[in-house]
Amino acid sequence: MNEKNFEYLKDQIKYTGFGEGLESELKAKMQKEEPNFTLNYNAQYGNDTAAATLNFKKSKESDMYFFNSYKVDLQKDNSKESLEQTFYINKGSNITMKEAYNLMEGRSVNKDLTNKEGEVYNAWVQMDFKQADTNGNFKLNQYHQNYGYDLEIVLSKHPIKELENPKFKEDLMDSIKKGNLQSATFLKEGNEVKHYIEANPQFKTINTYDGAMKRIDNRKSKEEKQSEGEGKSVKQDSKRQNQSADEDGPAVPQEAKKRKKQSNSM
């Protein structure tokens, strides 16, 4: 067994969000020197269960193994069906297991990615449940830096208490960039109200939910600050929000059902 290869794969697994619990199994599989092998990992996110299958393949020219991809099977607590997606390992920053879960929940993740020329670029990534690629995976839409979505500027338009403290502000932004549905304290008429927020790069805003996870319309107030006579545009914006609520909310959109499978077949 190639020891350096083992150390590299061990770290790669760890920093892709699978922890250190697979180390002994990884070593045992590599010592068998089979052409390919898999490792299994299970995670619990609230009441949701995510099972990952990590895929490894041996080089034809050497004794080195490569961590090529991992498939996630997500079983939501309130659904009899599960959702599958394969995430590929790149030379740059990989999508972690928790980020994969957030993407499968319909949220957006901010990543430094690497193109085919080896150049690093930053983009927001969001799963498109209406489009699947040739491998059966849902398409990952990317909103690059030039798209013009600046999370810090967007957050500054809302009365969020955490923004007043540099450390809390940094933690808030980091969590949202990882695709988390993050709690935040909104200051309203002298009162502190706890809401949940997530990034919405497609529409250059944030989605806000109350404690019961009901969507809050925060776009209307934003429009009112920009103009006095925009009643028509507000009405159009509200209509667009209602049409898009299912695809940018935390729940998996209905369109995804075509790629789900019955849980009793797992």
Fold and architecture overview:
This protein folds into 2 domains: 1-99; 105-257, no CATH class. Helices cover 29% and strands 35% of the residues. It contains 7 helices and 12 strands. It has helices spanning 3-18, 23-32, 97-104, 151-156, 166-177, 219-226, 231-248, and strands at 36-45, 48-58, 65-75, 81-88, 108-114, 120-132, 138-144, 182-188, 191-200, 205-209, 215-216, 260-262. Residues 220-255 and 257-266 have low confidence and may be disordered.
Task: Describe the structure concisely.
The protein has seven helices and twelve strands. The chain is of the alpha+beta class. The chain folds into two domains: 99 residues; 153 residues, no CATH class.
